[in-house]
Specification:
About 70% of the residues lie in helices and about 0% in strands. It is mainly alpha-helical. The radius of gyration is 23 Å and the shape is elongated. The N and C termini lie far apart (about 60 Å). Belongs to the PRA1 family.
Length: about 180
């Protein structure tokens, strides 16, 4: 069994590059925003209908998950933000861990000198884990994850099942 070595945290932070992560996410976010369907299309009451069969439900879900994927992702993100803002301890822990790891990475491998004590990277990461893990257990993240999965699944699959295909795509199926 492999033993825990605090030096693994410092090698992780040296390999983790925030700038490349930021550039990739910005370009991915921009492409997702361009794929967002307008609310008039997403909430079109005229296209809401009861599916005729289980096969119709399957076809609608398959089509709408692809067609409205960016809108469904936006719903998931809104629910995620809602769950974070209503669970103070989880929000505190996420902000604390992310800001601490970002601050430690800004040290560029140097020690943190507070005047009365000198702390290296592995000690700083151990301190973050020592504070962050108990707060994480208090905040019940597993219940939040299950709530997020169940509510987003009900909303997304429910919308995908009752929304009929747009009229423009109905003619694409006929060959």
């Amino acid at each position: 069994m492999a033993s825990f070595v605090p030096a693994q945290f410092s090698s992780f932070s040296s390999n983790f590059n925030f700038n490349s992560l930021r550039a990739d996410n910005i370009s991915n976010l921009q492409s997702r925003l361009h794929k967002l369907k307008p609310p008039q299309d997403f909430l079109d009451i005229k296209r809401i209908s009861r599916p005729r069969s289980a096969n119709d439900v399957q076809q609608r879900i398959a089509f709408n998950l692809n067609y409205f994927s960016s809108n469904y992702l936006l719903i998931l993100l809104v629910l995620l933000l809602y769950s974070l803002f209503t669970n103070f301890w989880l929000l505190f822990d996420v902000v604390f861990v992310i800001s601490s790891c970002y601050g430690i990475s800004k040290l560029n491998g140097n020690d943190l000198n507070l005047g009365f004590v000198r702390l290296n990277q592995s000690q700083l990461y151990t301190g973050v884990a020592f504070i962050g893990l108990p707060v994480l257990f208090i905040s019940s993240p597993i219940a939040t994850i299950f709530w997020l999965i169940s509510v987003s699944s009900i909303i997304v699959l429910g919308h995908a099942a009752i929304m009929d295909k747009p009229i423009e795509t109905a003619f694409n199926d006929v060959v």
